[in-house]
Structure formats: C-alpha cells, structure tokens
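To: structure subgroup
Subject: Chain for Friday's discussion

All,

I'm putting the inputs and outputs inline so they're searchable in the archive.
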Amino acid sequence: MNQQLLSGYAPTPVTARMRMENHGSSMLKVAMQSGQDLFARTGSMVAYEGFVQYEPNPPAVRQMASQWLTGEGAPLMKCSGDGLLYLADYGADVVCVNLAGDSLSVNGTNLLAFDAHLQWGVQRVKGMAKFAGQGLFNVGISGTGWVALTSRGTPIVVDCGRGEDETYVDPDALVDWSTNLKMKGKRSFKASSMIGRGSGEAYQLGFSGQGFVVVQPSEDSTDRLRARG
C-alpha cells in the first residue's frame, strides 16, 4: 500500500504546551510524560506509542468511583509513562477543555480522561432528582489542567452569561456545565406526545449566572445507560 495515501491521517507532533488535542473528531491524543499521570475511562485506549502503563481501578479512585451514576463500579484507569496515548469512546466526538482554576460538573458517561492532579469527586446533582431515569450523580472536576469529554455528535457550548434570560436544557442532552451556575428544574408539555412517543410531560434544567453549558445533539437516555468496558 502506498503510505502517501494515508499521510493525511498520520499523527502530528504534540507540542510541550499541548497536553491534549483531537486527532480527528472522535479520537483524543495525549502527550504522556513521566510524573504526569492521567485518569481515563477504562477500555478507552485504542493505541499508544512509547512506554505507557495502565492500572485499572487504582486505589486512589476506587472508593470515589464506586458511587458512579450507573453503579457500574470504578470505570477509571490510571495511565502513566512517556509517549503518545490515543483514546476514544465508540466513535463519539471528543472535546478537550483546558481548565485554568475552573470547576466543571460532568455527566459521568461523557467523561473520557483528565489530568490526575486535578481535584475531583462524585457528587449528587440536586436538580436532577425529580427526573425519572436520569443519573443522580455527576463528576465534579476543578483546578488547572486538562479534561477530555465526549459528545454524541457535535456539541454546542451555550454561554449563559450573555443575557438575563435563563437557559433550559434537556437533562439527557447535558454533557457538562460550570459549577458556579445556578440550576433549577422545570416541567413543561412534551411535543413528542402529539405523535405518541411520550407521556406529555418533559423536564428541563434551567441555568443562570456566569458560565457555560455544553449540550450534545442527542437526548436518548439509553446512551447514558449503555455499559462500557
């Protein structure tokens, strides 16, 4: 095979400043260095170059991850070493976020990887408690470092600080949001009930304040409950 035909898909060098970046829309490339460990979703490694080691269900996360929203146990592995690490999650779009002292609340099924030095914990999401079928736990991440998220399709980032109006989102389409936002629930008529697909009632989460919300173009709750290795 003529390798020039595939040259457009070859990985580009990762600079020292770029810890994480996309390789295409559905793959994450991480520059691994000694002493800079990474937590990643178990089973998400698709390839690596260099010397990279993996520790599934490490003690540092075992107790916290046992509270994961789906009850699936500890879905994280610790990655360490030197080289390039490639991660993916069933073809989902990958979004890289560089935190600079910020705090995020991330739906557990949308969390792909994050720097191990970041502060994190599994937390109850109060505004979702009334929504049947929606996970009640998210992962709070804060500090300075990199986080990689996944989205079922190209996501949109809604800036909640641009006006006085609140932003309402279907909970099944939520990926993550700034933790400093105020959140409340709202029930309304569900248009899909007109064609026999729903019960006639919908539940949205309203956000207000300074921050952002990331929304994926999918509201199928089965995506969130699908088991992953």
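Points worth raising on Friday:
The longest helix spans residues 59-65.
Residues 1-7, 69-74, 193-200, 222-229 have pLDDT under 50 and may be disordered.

D.
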